[in-house]
Design goal:
Blueprint lengths: L3 E10 L7 E11 L4 E6 L5 H8 L7 E6 L2 E2 L7 H7 E4 L12 H12 L4 H14 L16 H13 L5 E5 L7 H18 L2 E5 L3 H7 L2 E6 L2 E7 H6 L1 H6 L6 H11 L11 H17 L1
Parallel strand pairs: 3-8, 3-9, 6-7, 7-8
Antiparallel strand pairs: 1-2, 1-4, 4-5, 9-10
This protein binds adenosine-5'-diphosphate.
Adenosine-5'-diphosphate (ADP) binds next to strand 2 and helix 1.
Length: 288
């Protein structure tokens, strides 16, 4: 059974007003436990709407979301529990830090979830901080005294601290410098590898997606355009370009080489694969 599944999921903003906008027109997706899913799509394609529906922040106009086989809206009073199980890190989450200390900020989610035991809470806070690489000394500081990257990591730690089954991150690296971006991505990857959690990463950066995702969900105009392995999705360079997306640069290089007549693999999406394929090609060429 899938961990999370959507059936004909539809959402409309401003229903019945002149500004009515169908943001999702019937999406069907199915995600298994432990998968790392990359979510891509042009601005306005419905990515943010989809992830807010998945954690129960928005209610579908029609269609269903099943978590562990159960409709999350079957008992609307229990929707809060869904938000603990499907943790969502918003775009620019640092704007949601509001406690006096980083420690208290990370404690907010698990306390609300009902963890009262101080020792248990303390352990969760420190483990979550460690996952995102926040030093112990920073925990007693005000969130406002942290650097941009540290604030972002503190906000992510606050969601991880709820120990969600599914962790969704909406553009977690937006606005960070390349070093900050790499750190966060590596930490998210390590978190997934260590906990076996299911992760959904919404990103504009094809390089980030290529590095992390097992499968890629491509959204276009409020619907699922493709949902396949990272390799299969990035092989469709021309199609992705048609819907306003790019493939990773290294994939582009190999697609161009193929067009020029070189006998190279086109399922390349990381630098490591690129190096290997280039060497293979050069060796093959030398042998001829
Ligand atoms: P993405 O995350 O892919 O950029 P969104 O889910 O934010 O896409 O948006 C999908 C569509 O819904 C877009 O056409 C967008 O303009 C519209 N939309 C998003 N949020 C709102 C809102 N609060 N009110 C009205 N329309 C919205």
């Amino acid at each position: 059974m899938a961990l999370i599944e959507t059936q004909d999921l539809r959402f409309v903003y401003g229903k019945g007003t002149p500004f009515e906008k169908v943001a999702l027109s019937g999406a069907n997706i199915s995600i298994d436990e432990g998968e790392f899913i990359g979510v891509i799509g042009h601005t306005g394609s419905g990515k943010s709407t989809l992830v807010q529906l998945l954690n129960g922040l928005l209610k579908p106009e029609s269609g269903r979301i099943l978590l562990d086989g159960k409709d999350i809206w079957a008992e609307p009073k229990k929707i809060r529990d869904v938000r603990f199980q499907v943790g969502l890190v918003f775009q620019y989450p640092e704007y949601q830090l509001f406690e006096e200390t980083v420690y208290k900020d990370i404690a907010f989610g698990p306390s609300n979830k009902g963890i009262k035991d101080k020792g248990e809470l303390d352990k969760i806070i420190r483990t979550s901080a460690e996952f995102v690489g926040l030093k112990e000394a920073l925990l007693e500081k005000s969130p406002f005294d942290l650097s941009g990257g540290e604030k972002r990591r503190a906000a992510i730690a606050g969601v991880i601290a709820m120990e969600p089954k599914v962790l969704i991150l909406d553009e977690p690296t937006a606005g960070l410098d390349p070093r900050g971006r790499d750190r966060i991505l590596n930490q998210i990857k390590a978190y997934r590898d260590k906990t076996g959690s299911t992760v959904l990463l919404v990103s504009h950066s094809m390089e980030d997606i290529a590095r992390c995702a097992d499968r890629v969900l491509v959204m276009n105009k409020g619907d699922v355009d493709m949902f396949d392995t990272t390799e299969n999705v990035f092989k469709q360079g021309e199609h992705l370009a048609e819907i306003g997306l790019k493939v990773p640069q290294i994939t582009q290089v190999f697609l161009e080489l193929k067009k020029l007549g070189a006998n190279v693999d086109t399922g390349i999406y990381t630098m490591e694969q690129g190096m290997e394929a280039a060497l293979k090609y050069l060796e093959g060429g030398a042998a001829e």
